[in-house]
Specification:
7 helices; homodimer; alpha/beta; 12% strand; globular; Helicase, Ruva Protein, domain 3; 4-stranded parallel sheet
């Protein structure tokens, strides 16, 4: 990392550069920006980081982030607790909530099985999911991991573990994105769209 | 700002979204990333922010950022203190240092005159620059503000103030960037390149 004038500034830009999607140039720009903030603003930023780490933990039911015992979905009596949508990360929940159609609850894996990166099933919250299903109050588990190699493998792995419980296990549909153009669709997406075609 | 699960996380993403070049989506991603950091890593990031604000201040000669009384350029006996390069911000110094050609010292204005944004000459470090020149040890002041309306206006304003001191005041040359293509040059750059042509 290039020296940008004062050691504490260089160290700060190194910290920023470790964040995802922030390159060396942006990190330096952010470090200079912190110098332009008031003391109160810089304190707020630092405190927000510490507070998030200190106050936020995982929901004891679904492993989503929350500052309470239960996350706001598990704690909401209007949600259908018999339907569980299994996602890789808390950020994926926001995507489902934007549809305004999904009324079930969630289960956050906090990762995908990835032997290459040394992530085995035990590193995820699969045990907690099996315990939820084992409690017998669940009708359907929707595997909503991303359509990547690791997402597919994790969905398959978990669905096999769930089979003995007699619960219905489904997978998100894959096909053409709405508004997408046939000519720009990759061959696997198009193949999936063809394979999963439905009568009109 | 969208609720992203837990209040401290939402507040953190709002803090990140205030930083330059970070939109709402990136800010949420950064907030989730903080949750993946270890407590020690999150502490380091927060401390780096606080340390930069606490330890870094402006050089008493040139107003560049430093954690000491003098910045490393003003404190370096090998630099030519009779030549002063006037820049808008500390980040601009890095650009000059990358040329490895400039051996003089700097003066950081910490902004440009901008009546639209309510920034008058008194908000900059112009007084300190005049005091340096008045001390009589300076041969040349290079106005190195950006070639924007505000950069030009500030350079002109300061050069007028410097005239009575009998010091040589120069401005960076404008023309075609090296490696640039004529056909892509904007008309003002090309006009400047033509106007400032030199015999070969």
């Amino acid at each position: 990392m290039a020296d940008i004038g004062a050691l504490p500034l260089t160290l700060l830009s190194e910290q920023f550069a470790r964040l995802p999607g922030i390159g060396m140039k942006s990190a330096q720009r952010l470090a200079y920006h912190v110098m332009e903030m008031s003391d109160a603003e810089a304190n707020e930023l630092a405190q927000a980081i510490l507070n998030a780490k200190r106050k936020v933990h995982t929901c004891k039911v679904c492993c989503n982030f929350t500052e309470n015992e239960l996350c706001r979905f598990c704690d909401d009596a209007r949600r259908d607790r018999r339907t569980v949508c299994v996602v890789e990360a808390p950020r994926d929940i926001a995507a489902f909530e934007r549809t305004k159609e999904y009324k079930g609850v969630y289960h956050v894996l906090h990762g995908l099985i990835s032997p290459i990166n040394g992530v085995g099933p035990d590193a995820l919250t699969i045990k907690q999911l099996l315990a939820r299903v084992n409690s017998g109050d669940i009708d359907e588990v929707i595997m909503a991991t991303n359509p990547t190699v690791e997402g597919e493998a994790t969905a398959m792995y978990i669905s096999k573990l769930l089979k003995p419980f007699g619960v219905k296990v489904t997978r998100l549909a894959f096909g053409l994105p709405i508004g997408g153009m046939l000519e720009y669709a990759d061959e696997i997406t198009l193949y999936k769209a063809l394979e999963n075609r439905s009568e009109i």
